[in-house]
Design a protein that fits this description.
alpha/beta, TIM Barrel
Length: 523
C-alpha cells in the first residue's frame, strides 16, 4: 500500500495526447505524478473524489500577455487563467518581451500596455529577468520568448543583436517572437533575419510570429514567413491565426492550404487561435504601416498638427477602410476614462467629431496606447482552423485577479477582452458541446499535449508517470465562459480543482492562496 500526497479518485482521465479517456485514479507525490491506474486501498494526505468529472493535464497558454501588461507582478494569483484550467503561460509574445531590458527603448515599448510610472525594473538581461521572476510569487508556471522587436529597436548592429539573442537563449528563453507589422529602430533585411533565426535553431528555439498583415495581405505575409522558415530551417508558429475583416475572410482556406503544403515539405509549422469573432487589438493597427513604424514623438506631432498633409492622409486611409464605427468598442484609454466601453460611433455623436477624428484624437491623447474590440473575425474560419491538426488553442489574453481590480466605470482604464477570462471554456462550449467539431480528447490535446510539444516541454502537458503534476479537474456539464464584452470581469465556471506542481491552487472552485508556479527555462 502506497501513501500519496494527493490522490485523485474515480475521474475520467484524459492523458493530453488525444487518446480516448478512461476511468482511473491519479497518485501524486511532491510535484510529480507517481502512478495512474486503479489505486484502490491506497491512502493520501488529500483525497479528491473526481467521480463524473474530467481529469486532464493543466492547459498551456501559448499566447499570453500577462508579462507585458504587468499583471504577472500586480495580480500574481492570475485567477482569470486558473478558472479556465490554465497552469502554464508563455510570455514574450508578438515581438515584445520584458527581457532583455534596454533602458529607454524598452520602456517605450512597455508603455503601450502599462503606466510605466507604476513599475520597477531591476534587470537588464534575460538571465537576470528569470532570476528576478523567481523572487516573485506566482500561481502559474511562466516561461518566455525573446521579443524580436524588443531587441531590434535598440538600433544596434547585427552582431550586437546576435549577442543579445544568444545570451537570451542560453539563459532559458524558449525562442523568438516577431511582429513585422510594427518596426522600430533599424530595419533588418531578410538575410539578416535568416541569420538570426539560424542562430535560434542551434538552441532548438521556437520562432513565433504575429502575422505582419492579418487582412487582405495575409497570404503574402504567410508566404514570407514560410520562406524565412525554410531558409533558416526553423520551427514556425503563428500566434492568434485569423483573417480580419470581411474582405479578408475568403483567404483563410488558401492560408490553411499553404500551411498544409509547407508541412508536406517537412516544415514544422503550427498555429494557435482563440474562439471569438471580436478581436482585441491596438487602435493603431487601423492606421497605415508607414505611420505605425514612426517614432512616438514624430507620430504624435503628425496627429497634433492640423496643417500636416500626412494627417489628412491618415483620415483618408481610415475612410477607405469603410469601418463599422458602431462595432468598434474602446477597450482602454488611460487619458480619457470616459471613452472606455463606448463605441467610436457613440463618441462621435457625443462630441460632434467624425469617427476618423475620434480615432486620431484617442491615439494622440494616449501616446498611441489605445486598445479596441472589433467584430472582424468569421466564425466559420475559426471552425476551419480548429479542425486542423496543426492548430492549438490559446487565449491571447492576460491574467487578472478580481479582488485587485476596481470595477467602477469611472475608474476603468483598461477593459479586458473576455478571452482573458473565458477562452478555454468557450472553446469547449463552441467546438465540442455546441458544434461537435472536436471531441473532448482532441480539444484537450490542443490545450495541453500539443502546446507542450510546440514549446518543447517534455514533462508537462501530458498525464504520465514522472511528469509534473499540473492537473485540472472539471465538470464537463458545467464548464462554460461567463465573461462578456460589456462585463468581462467574470470567472469561468466548471473548473473545480487546479493542481500546479502538485499543489492545489483551486480547491472546490476557490483560490487557496498558494503560489507554486515555477519559472521554466528552455533546456
Amino acid at each position: 500500500m502506497a501513501r500519496y500526497d494527493v490522490l485523485i479518485k474515480n475521474g475520467t482521465v484524459f492523458d493530453g495526447r488525444g487518446s480516448a479517456p478512461s476511468v482511473a485514479d491519479v497518485g501524486i507525490v511532491g510535484d510529480e505524478i507517481k502512478r495512474i491506474g486503479d489505486l484502490s486501498g491506497n491512502t493520501a494526505s488529500k483525497i479528491i473524489d473526481a467521480t463524473d468529472k474530467y481529469v486532464s493535464p493543466g492547459f498551456i497558454d501559448l499566447t499570453n500577455h500577462s508579462d507585458t501588461h504587468w499583471t504577472i507582478f500586480s495580480q500574481p494569483s492570475q485567477e482569470s487563467l486558473l478558472h479556465q484550467g490554465i497552469t502554464t503561460i508563455l510570455g514574450g509574445n508578438c515581438g515584445s518581451s520584458l527581457a532583455p531590458f534596454l533602458g529607454k527603448t524598452s520602456m517605450e515599448e512597455i508603455q503601450r500596455w502599462v503606466d510605466v510610472s507604476k513599475i520597477n525594473v531591476n534587470w537588464a538581461t534575460m538571465k537576470e529577468f528569470l532570476k528576478e521572476m523567481e523572487n516573485h510569487k506566482l500561481s502559474v508556471n511562466f516561461c518566455t520568448l525573446t521579443g524580436f522587436n524588443t531587441i531590434q529597436r535598440t538600433e544596434m548592429e547585427i552582431n550586437q543583436i546576435k549577442l543579445l539573442l544568444k545570451d537570451s537563449l542560453e539563459a532559458g528563453s524558449f525562442g523568438v517572437s516577431t511582429n513585422f507589422g510594427l518596426v522600430y529602430g533599424r530595419t533588418l533585411k531578410d538575410d539578416e533575419i535568416i541569420d538570426l533565426f539560424k542562430l535560434a535553431k542551434k538552441y532548438g528555439a521556437l520562432i513565433k510570429h504575429h502575422l505582419e498583415d492579418e487582412g487582405e495581405n495575409i497570404l503574402p505575409s504567410l508566404s514570407r514567413l514560410i520562406s524565412l522558415a525554410q531558409k533558416s530551417g526553423t520551427q514556425l508558429h503563428i500566434s492568434h491565426f485569423k483573417a480580419l475583416g470581411k474582405n479578408s475572410w475568403k483567404f483563410i482556406p488558401g492560408a490553411i492550404e499553404m500551411i498544409k503544403n509547407a508541412i508536406k515539405e517537412n516544415l514544422k509549422i503550427t498555429c494557435d487561435f482563440f474562439p471569438y469573432t471580436k478581436t482585441g487589438s491596438s487602435l493603431l493597427i487601423l492606421l497605415p504601416s508607414w505611420f505605425r513604424k514612426l517614432p512616438l514623438a514624430e507620430a504624435k506631432n503628425i496627429l497634433e498638427t492640423k496643417s500636416d498633409g500626412r494627417k489628412k492622409d491618415l483620415i483618408e486611409s481610415l475612410k477607405k477602410l469603410t469601418l463599422h464605427y458602431d462595432k468598434i468598442i474602446v477597450a482602454s484609454g488611460f487619458s480619457e476614462l470616459g471613452a472606455v466601453g463606448k463605441t467610436i460611433e457613440q463618441l462621435s455623436k457625443t462630441s460632434g467629431l467624425s469617427g476618423e477624428d475620434i480615432i486620431l484624437d484617442l491615439l494622440w491623447t494616449n501616446n498611441l496606447r489605445v486598445s479596441i474590440f472589433n467584430e472582424v473575425i468569421n466564425e466559420e474560419n475559426i471552425e476551419a482552423i480548429a479542425k486542423e491538426e496543426f492548430s492549438a488553442i490559446a487565449s491571447d489574453g492576460v491574467g487578472y485577479q478580481l479582488s485587485a481590480i476596481s470595477r467602477q466605470p469611472s475608474a476603468i482604464s483598461d477593459l479586458p477582452h473576455p478571452r482573458s477570462f473565458g477562452a478555454f471554456p468557450r472553446a469547449f462550449n463552441l467546438l465540442v458541446k455546441q458544434k461537435s467539431i472536436l471531441k473532448w480528447e482532441e480539444a484537450i490535446w490542443k490545450m495541453s499535449g500539443l502546446a507542450a510539444e510546440i514549446l518543447g516541454i517534455k514533462n508537462r502537458g501530458v498525464l504520465a508517470k514522472g511528469n509534473k503534476a499540473d492537473i485540472i479537474i472539471f465538470n464537463p456539464v458545467e464548464i462554460s465562459d461567463r465573461a462578456t464584452y460589456d462585463n468581462p470581469f467574470q470567472y469561468s465556471r466548471g473548473v473545480d480543482y487546479v493542481l500546479i506542481n502538485g499543489t492545489t491552487v483551486l480547491d472546490n472552485k476557490e483560490f487557496t492562496g498558494k503560489f507554486p508556479g515555477y519559472i521554466l527555462r528552455k533546456k
